[in-house]
Amino acid sequence: MSNGREGVNVDELMSLPEAGALTGIGPSSLRRRVRIGKLKYKRIGRSYATTLRWIAESEEPGAMGRPPKKLPDTLRPKP
User: What angle do CA 36, 40, 46 make, to 5 degrees?
Assistant: First the structure.
């Protein structure tokens, strides 16, 4: 993804901590997405800014978070 040089309404931009508070995604996870090129952003000084739309576009089903842990056989529900 690009760094978001396309036209964006300045009112939509928010810092990564603000975006994290609204989406429940940690700011460090958002910074990682910026670093690896999966999240569009704008640089404002030394900080990154993004929009909720760009975060939604960067979402891949099942791509975030750890995979679920396997339950030990003793804890698995019996059929």
Answer: 80
| Residue 50, both tokens | 């993004």
CB-CB neighbours of 50 under 10 Å: 24
Q: How far is CA 34 from the centre of its chain?
A: 8
pTM of structure: 0.65
- Cβ contact 22:52 at 8 Å: yes
Residue position matching structure tokens 């999966």: 38
Residue 48: beta bridge partners? Answer: 43
Indicate the residue type of 67.
P
pLDDT at position 43: 93
